[in-house]
Amino acid sequence: MMNKLTNIRLKGTAVTLSALFAMGLVSCNKWLDKNPDDRTTLDNVETINELLTSGYPMRSNILMYEVRSDNAADKGIRAWANPTTDREIYTFQEYISSTYQDTPTGYWNNMYECISVANQALKGLEELKGLTADQARKVAESKGEALMIRAYSIYMLAQTFCRPYDPSTADQYLGVPCPTEPEDVVLKGYKRGTLKETYDRILKDFEEGYALIGNSYAQPKYHWTKTSAAALGTRIYRTLGQWDKVVELGNFVLGTEPGIMLRDMTKYRNLSYNEQKKLYTMPTENTNLILNVAMSWWVGSVADSRYGLTPSIRTRAGFGDHYNFLRVEITPNGPYFGGTLYANFPKWWEYFRVDNIQAGTGRGFIAVPLVTAEEVLFNMGEAYAMTGEYPKAVDALQLFVTKFFKGYSAADDRYTVTNDKIVSFYQTDQRVFKPFYPLDETQTAYVKAFTDMRRVAFFQEGLRWLDIRHYNLPVEHNLLSHRDAKSSSVSLEAGDPRYAFQIPSSTKGYNLEPNPGYEKSDKSLMSSENQ
Question: Which pTM value belongs to this model?
């Protein structure tokens, strides 16, 4: 528990995870439940900083988000893996039978463990007295990190378990519990409150934390820093439609040379499949603003699961020449692998910890970029469109095309992004985007362009689900019979309550009100015919 996450090093093809495993596989709540005489006293900032290293997520939301989104389809019985968890998520079931990693329950529990750590650290910091000027500075920075941990955790809980944010209904919809004091029992006596109250807490923590947080870490890519916190801010303020804040924080992150912050996909073309997987989440990639190491079987599911990406989805999502505003086949430099049944992009490398040498069993981990420079670029570009600064929005899209698409040449007009290309292409697009704020025709075209490019960039990273929620986009999932014939489908429409995952059934013991609306979920879809 008290080992340092900063000891993690990614070196070439190997990763040192001993500190991670020693720390992360023990519940933070178990540590907090110990008699104070049996645990380390939080009587100095160094010890508190060690505690804070356990405030970063040890679970991932990627499988949940991808399988729930329109990036997934039923590939049929020939697919290598047919996991129950994936099937339940894919068919929008209320409760997922597994409660471990890659599940809503696992994610919920871990986010509250992170909040518990932040609260314990904040209390310890408040109790430090007689500080020198240098010690006071370190305490302030540590407080900033703790607040950012809590802001991120509550924000992601809201994005997962609450209805999409809308200021006109936020005081009517359920939020999530937002503990701010350390306690021995998580969620003791808490209520969900409203979504407005939840976002008020997120903003308070973020703004106070951002004012205090620093960059003085031996391994800054594994901590919230001024830069990565600003990147998170662009996501939060985009959710709230506060465009000036998105631009302000985005400019701080990307600086005057945003191109050097983006992933240079040209270098991936000459790497092997495994080399690309290892490089994608390395801290040496400038775009990876903060990395987190999470226990997950996503590497084994990303290509093999019955419910996942197909070539058809990939083409229609913007890669094919009829499906993007440049009207060319804009194949990413990073190759696409797997064919019909195992479609995947080489983004994830599994770090495996053996628990039983004789049995060969253990646990898989992945490095996860919590925020990237590409996301900041898209958030800024969208903000420019929403404030009528269309030339700057064009520049943002052009920079993405320059970095990501094979065959790009400044002399080739096919790869030149223009206002006319964007507006004319989306004039015939029948998709309806329904954010809580109004969109005129031009704004709609740009929002669709940025959303489509975000989908291209972040396939199999989970962010598509957040866009689906934000814009109330429909999702239709096909269901194949045991003969691989289409037997039925299940879908989400705008305003569907199932845009929010149901809170875990275990929370009934805390008398927390579950999300309403899951009576729409058709239990017959789980019949053996579709398994």
Answer: 0.91
